[in-house]
Amino acid sequence: MTETPGPGTPDGLTWVRAAPEDAEGPGPWIEIAFGPDGLVLLRETGDPATVVTTTRAKWEAFTKGVVAGEFDHFAEAVGEEGAGS
User: Which spans in the chain are helix H?
Assistant: First the structure.
């Protein structure tokens, strides 16, 4: 999906939505775009004008950490909150 960027966001980005395959509706989901000069841009579908930018190297380190399970304790804490509901 390519959209008109907000202020300071490069033109012509292709945003990729990170959502489960069976997800319906607008989310809220995170969208990711790879920009010029090795930048990675992230935004929420509910607030596309707010964009967070990081470097490709930091993004790759983050995704390797996710795959390695370095952030599993965050997911477990979210699961525990819903367990008592």
Answer: 56-67, 72-83
